[in-house]
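User: Hey, my collaborator sent me this sequence without any context and asked if I could get a structure. I don't really work with proteins. Can you help?
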Amino acid sequence: MKDEIDLMEVWTSVKKRLSSLFSMFIISLIFLRKITVKNIFLLISLVVCGLLLSFILNYMNQGYYKSAMSLRSGYVNSELMKSSIDKLNNLCSAKKYVELSRVLEIDSVLSKSLRSISVEMNLTNSEVLELEKFQKKIEKEKDLDLSHLKILDQVVSFNSDNYKITITTFDPDNFDVWEAHLVAYLMNHSSVQRMINFDKEVSKLRDANIDDEMSKLNDLKKILIEKYTVSLDKRTEGSNNVIMSDDNSINPISVFHEIRDLYNEKMIIHRQLSLDTSFEIVDGFTNFYKTTDNNYSAIKFSVLGLVLGYLFLFLSQFNSYLNRMEKKLKTKSYLDLDTIN
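Assistant: No problem. I've predicted the 3D structure and written it out in structure-token form, which is a compact way to encode the shape of the chain:
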């Protein structure tokens, strides 16, 4: 019986506490509704201010897009490549867009969209394996320190003809334009252009020389064919003459192979001259870009404005409550604040 009484008391106590919590919850909702209705224009103003702030921040801090291009060329060493790209990046950093548009021969509006540009060596798998072999050999030498490994890295990178050019821009729709103008900018360098023109002249001379050699070999081929035709005719006549072979005679198969090799070389030269492989784009700028800046969400800032508004109202109500308590305590003489001050 005693246990039943105790359980009833516990249940009654729990019920009272739940009832009081529910009452507090209802009172809180009533209070929240009251201050919301009373200060609706203030809350709407703060939400609008949050929206405007997000728009302003997004305008001032535009998101930028990043992409990379793999380029191969035997006419540009790492020092020239780095200095050329650094020149563009310095113009971009200094916001000299007129000069940047003149150097790259692009529109000034497009030049303003460039945020940064950089380049790094893009070693092939064979170069990486070669570098690792050299590093293992050097590590076995006790007299060499780690500085030699750094020097070796620089040497291998300097001899590499593969580069990775990375750009960040505010305009994601003109990566193909940047690709074409960057290649043209590198090709139009005075020293690079001299080497390209020199190699073209050498290729043209070699092409003419191949034509001359092939012409002579074709004449020789005709002579050999006539010679072997006559020899074959004599054999088919059934004469008793014995035809001795000449050990110093030219093998016609070797002549045919030489003509074929010269023709293949000629095709390679024509391909180089027609396709202009001085600068080869291994992998161009991709259109699958990604925004790298933080986006200032309008929803987040509007919610933040609403939260700050309610916080301000709660603090204001709490301050009013403290003022009322202060007046009540003064009237009842529980606390004399004037004597304390």
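In plain terms: The chain has a mean pLDDT of 76. You can pass these tokens on to your collaborator as they are.
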